[in-house]
């Protein structure tokens, strides 16, 4: 039969995927310009443009894009008189939002986005792309981030956005009340530790991280009314690759293993296992891929991005079960929290 010559319509999802970069770029630009802070209360477009020193027509186009992404709400049908304000999602991007997404967005914009611009090279070479992207090694850039208290605080503000809003869900993914002592290895700002402190008031908690990270930890300390028993949290400086972890009944590793290749992951888990008493445990916080590796979208994307960043990857619950059992752990439990940030894996030392 002869073809009619009529092509079936291209599904809308195809165009959504092709133009997906426009959505993230609109968010990056809005955060960089401070739009989500300006429209904390409803504002007309002309006033928004004035406050961010932007061209009015261009600002209107950005505002309309943010409305289409459901990040802003447009009040009124007349474009010349409409007011714009944050939606509940858009409110996450205010600089003062308790989700700390602003710092995370700025980190992704300045670091991860340029790196993934070289994804084709990463796929061909199987190597990270720091040198090609920034003409520097990852060690050079991280040394710069740690070179002063101000830079380190800025860097940590970016990192905490990838865990902060999920810490309460993560802390209660399993009942951890049987563990009197907890050590958050590489715990940075202490957000996970303070969430554990709230969930388990009698637990004694140590945050273990590099000494210069510990030096700036007071900057991230929550208000007393937010975490009344925060005296149960202490910070200790050290290196989790060295055989000297603080004593604990439960070691927590959040977004640690996904940064490293197999040899480093083995060294970290050997160190944790050797420091645990019988009956002690390890709790992993990672973005988990499904065992069939077909989703969820966020960790699958992140595993792809990690190829540009390091020798690490996002893994499935089954992957971590096998890894933990290889290191002698038993009774491995996996919990998908559906938070897009921190799923949980708990394992016990016999």
The first-level CATH class of the largest domain is given as: Alpha Beta
Strand order of the largest sheet: 6-5-4-7-8-10-9
CATH architecture of the largest domain: 3-Layer(aba) Sandwich
Strand/helix succession: HHHEHHEEHHHHHHEHEHEEHEHHEE
Could you say how many structural domains there are in total?
2
Q: Determine the CATH superfamily of the largest domain.
A: Vaccinia Virus protein VP39
* Sheet with the most strands, sense and barrel status: 7 strands, mixed
Number of strands: 10
Report low-confidence residues grouped into runs of 5 or more: none
Q: Count up the helices.
A: 16
Mean pLDDT: 94
Q: Give the helix proportion (percent range).
A: 40-55%
Overall, the morphology is globular
Estimated structural class: alpha/beta
N-to-C CA distance: 69 Å
Can you tell me the CATH topology of the largest domain? Rossmann fold
- Content of β-strand: 5-15%
Radius of gyration: 23 Å
What would you say this structure looks like, in words?
The protein is α/β, with parallel strands linked by helices and 350 residues long. It has 2 domains: 81 residues, Arc Repressor Mutant, subunit A; 194 residues, Vaccinia Virus protein VP39 (Rossmann fold, 3-Layer(aba) Sandwich). It contains 16 helices and 10 strands. The strands form 2 sheets. Strands 6-5-4-7-8-10-9 form a 7-stranded mixed beta sheet, with helices on both faces. A 3-stranded antiparallel beta sheet has the order 1-3-2. Helix 12 links the parallel strand 4 and strand 5. The longest helix is centred in the N-terminal third of the chain and has 16 residues. The mean pLDDT is 94.
